[in-house]
Design a protein that fits this description.
Layout lengths: L2 H4 L12 H9 L5 H5 L5 E4 L14 E16 L3 E9 L4 E7 L4 H4 L5 E7 L1 E3 L2 E5 L2 E3 L8 E4 L10 H15 L14 H7 L4 H9 L4 H33 L10 H9 L6 H15 L5 E6 L5 H14 L3 E5 L3 H15 L3 E3 L7 E3 L2 E4 L5 H13 L4 E4 L13 E7 L6 H8 L9 E6 L5 H7 L4 E5 L10 E5 L11 H15 L3 E5 L7 H17 L7 E4 L5 H12 L5 E4 L12 E7 L6 H8 L10 E5 L5 H12 L3 H12 L2 H4 L18 H17 L7 H11 L11
Parallel strand pairs: 4-7, 10-17, 10-18, 11-15, 11-16, 14-15, 16-17, 19-24, 20-22, 20-23, 21-22, 23-24
Antiparallel strand pairs: 1-9, 2-3, 2-5, 3-4, 5-8, 6-7, 12-13
Helix pairs in contact: 7-8, 8-23, 9-11, 10-11, 15-23, 20-21
The structure holds adenosine-5'-diphosphate and magnesium ion.
Adenosine-5'-diphosphate (ADP) binds next to helix 11.
Length: 717
């Protein structure tokens, strides 16, 4: 039976599912046999390993099979209720306690058999669990009982689900091999990996006879999820490459040569490698879709500029889009400086040349300038434009946009990437380079950016002194008597200012509201300016500072007129002041790893030794782990791996993965090697069979699974 059939048969076709059950299952998003068979157990009760109340130590977590003896509801003060249930495992008794779950009184009827999972406590000398997970498995027999995610609200218990799934299995897989699930994964892929077939795996995950069966089933089904994802990503990528008409750029024009000759330093090996990879893409007439990953300070800007110059060399244009005005302006300044003195051919001019033009276009660009720049872009007189979202407006048209660079990708949506690609008056599709300064783990990149090729700058330019990072154990609020370590920190900051250096102080992150955050930043500023940093020239920057004032403050800091910049996270990305060598982050445990790493990357950009102080008294284990990671490592890629470990993949996948493509069993965190393996297998298969002509079942499965997710998923062509 093929996957298309599975997803075509309604659950109501199952024995025991009438109209009421059907509604209940639909409420749980279980519409078809396919949905049901991929509604996997969340754990198993292994009767051979089941625990007894009397054997448990206090504080130990366990799964126990119990029968309910008695359940009572008690009203507490303030309209609260407590339900207590006395249960037995056949030998000893314990109490289950629930607060404000009135419905438990009805659920835990006398005589009910249930599986409870929780931590054993002792209350007045009696065994107790508070708010344990309760699963109703009914009177199922068997050694290993699957425990399904159930729905109290829909009135569907784990035992019900077990029955329906059993029914669905009987309808689709028979023991005598007469009926099997079609296996969409080619035999050689399974064989190479020693994996069991689809039918066996589906049966093994739902009605296993042993732990080994469960693991073999999980292994296969996890592979399937990741393989499906990789095949569709790789296929999509190849499809885009094959169908879009891009610009074939030159690889070695005069501009790129002059540019390289003019650099005051040699490129790093990683920069050379990335430029070579990009150039190889650019000379082909397929459009490039490449991600440039590089740690803060790795020198991505140069690589981007080289890519855009390739375009200009061939008579095309380049555009760089940054996520904020500050960044766009800074890129504009920096890139103008890098390209000063370069000239492009201009037959109509007296000398046959004109200066290469680099313009800035943001929503703040004034009328006359805007008009001139728009004209320059449409007429081809503007060679490179740096901008913000403003570049996406309809009015912005290019004569021939050859290379688009998108900085800090995670702030732009897929749609916006697509919008920039359709800006050419002649309909050609520019090459796209996406840059991210927040490294993400390789396996996550394969998934989130699986439709892009990836270049990595994994080497910092030489001569940087590594940033020393210290944890100062103190609350970031500065109230009360400051601990010694904090006083020392401020003393060191003042000493470095006395040496001519500059410093950042980042204020506590306040999620609740920008208003409170601003107020707190102002307060921190006042306090520092009058106490800890008294006598220094201190500036303040936050989200509510008007644009002109923000510019003025940034400019004064850049020019060295301010010693210290007190700021919210507005300085997070890209701000480049090499003379700033101290970074203080208050309440650092509130920030994520990536954000801390970004903030820290604002220092350590010049020849002087830099230091980062993380001021925090972490109140959670995760907070502590984040601080520890930052103190231990300055490697963005290593930190990204730790971040994935701490946070899981949810935040990374976030936006891009929706609908049925959701990973049900697979985890980017726990199955890193499988991601790599699945991608390898996907590439092998698509090399052999690009259109999946000989793998119809797989093509079908991909179509079924992507039907819902298609809209938001992946690149739009
Ligand atoms: P990123 O954008 O990757 O964080 P940048 O492109 O802003 O990094 O570069 C950081 C700094 O390093 C800049 O001041 C730049 O001029 C300098 N830089 C870039 N490449 C090199 C190199 N190969 N050698 C020395 N300095 C470099
Ligand atoms: Mg940068």
């Amino acid at each position: 039976m093929g996957v298309r059939d599975l997803y075509a048969i309604d659950v109501e076709k199952l024995r025991g599912v009438g109209p009421k059950r059907k509604d209940a299952l639909h409420k749980m998003d279980l519409f078809t046999l396919g949905d049901l068979l991929t509604h996997y157990p969340r754990r198993y009760l292994d009767r051979t390993r089941q625990a007894w109340i009397a054997d448990l130590m206090e504080g130990e977590e366990a799964t126990i099979v119990v029968r309910v003896l008695r359940t009572d509801l008690r009203r507490l003060k303030g309209n609260r209720v407590m339900v207590t249930s006395t249960v037995t495992d056949g030998q000893s008794q314990m109490t289950l306690t629930f607060f404000n779950q009135r419905w438990r009184e009805r659920q835990l009827k006398e005589g009910l058999e249930a599986i409870v999972f929780g931590k054993l406590e002792s209350f007045r000398g009696k065994a107790q669990m508070t708010s344990p997970v309760v699963d109703l498995v009914g009177d199922q027999t068997g050694k290993i009982i699957p425990v399904y995610p159930q729905s109290e609200k829909a009135g569907v218990s784990s035992a019900d689900l077990s029955r329906f799934v059993g029914e669905a299995l009987r309808r689709t897989i028979t023991n005598d091999d007469a009926r099997r699930l079609a296996d969409p994964v080619p035999g050689w892929i399974l064989h190479d990996r020693g994996m069991i077939d689809r039918s066996e795996a589906v049966r093994g995950i739902h009605i296993p006879d042993s732990q080994q069966e469960i693991s073999a089933a999980r292994r296969r089904l996890i592979f399937d999820e990741l393989f499906r994802m990789q095949v569709s990503l790789v296929r999509r990528k190849r499809h885009l490459q094959a169908t879009q008409q891009g610009v074939a750029h030159s690889s070695d024009g005069p501009l790129i040569r002059q540019f390289r000759d003019s650099l005051p330093f040699p490129l790093t090996g990683a920069q050379e490698r990335a430029i070579a990879e990009i150039t190889a893409d650019l000379v082909r007439d397929m459009p490039m879709h490449r991600l440039l990953q590089g740690d803060v300070g790795a020198g991505k800007t140069l690589v981007a500029v080289a890519a855009m110059l390739n375009a200009v060399d061939g008579g095309h244009q380049g555009a760089l889009m940054a996520p904020t005005e500050v960044l766009a302006e800074q890129h504009h300044l920096g890139i103008r400086r890098l390209l000063a003195g370069l000239e492009v051919p201009e037959p109509s001019s007296l000398l046959g040349n004109r200066p290469l033009s680099v313009e800035l276009l943001t929503s703040r660009t004034g009328g006359p300038d805007r008009k001139r720049i728009l004209g320059g872009l449409a007429g081809g007189l503007t060679d490179i434009v740096i901008g913000t979202h403003a570049l996406l407006q309809d009015k912005v048209q290019f004569q021939s946009l050859g290379v688009v660079v998108i900085d800090e990708q995670h702030r732009f949506g897929v749609e916006q990437r697509a919008a920039l690609r359709n800006k050419n008056l002649d309909g050609s599709v520019p090459d796209v380079l996406v840059m991210t300064a927040t490294p993400i783990p390789r396996t996550a990149a394969m998934t989130v950016y699986g439709d892009l090729d990836v270049s990595v700058l994994d080497e910092l330019p030489p001569g940087r002194t590594p940033i020393q990072t210290h944890h100062v154990d103190a609350p970031g609020t500065l109230d009360g008597e400051p601990p010694l370590a904090l006083e020392q920190m401020w003393a060191e900051l003042r000493a470095s200012v006395a040496d001519g250096r500059q410093a950042y102080v980042v204020c506590p992150l306040i999620d609740e509201s920008e208003k409170i955050e601003v107020a707190s930043a102002e307060e921190t500023y006042e306090r520092l300016a009058s106490v800890e940093l008294h006598g220094l020239k201190v500036g303040l920057l936050h989200g509510r500072v008007p644009a002109e004032e923000k510019d003025a403050v940034m400019e004064r800091f850049r020019a060295g007129e301010l010693d210290v910049l007190v700021s919210t996270t507005v300085i997070e990305v890209g701000v480049d002041v090499p003379n700033a060598t101290t970074m203080v982050i208050l309440d650092a445990d509130r920030f994520g790893i990536a954000q801390l790493h970004q903030l820290r990357g604002r220092v350590g950009r010049g020849a002087h030794a830099s230091v980062c102080w993380l001021v925090a008294s972490p109140t959670t284990a995760d907070g502590e782990a984040r601080i520890e990671a930052l103190v231990r490592s300055t490697d963005g890629f290593e930190l990204a791996e730790i971040d994935l470990d701490l946070r899981g993949e949810g935040t990374i996948l976030g936006e891009r993965q929706k609908g049925r493509n959701d990973l049900k069993l697979a985890s980017l965190r726990q199955n890193r090697e499988v991601v790599v393996d699945a991608r390898r297998a996907a590439i092998q298969l698509l090399d052999l069979d690009p259109e999946l002509a000989a793998n119809g079942e797989l093509a079908d499965e991909l179509a079924v699974f992507s039907a819902e997710a298609d809209e938001e998923f992946l690149l739009k062509g």
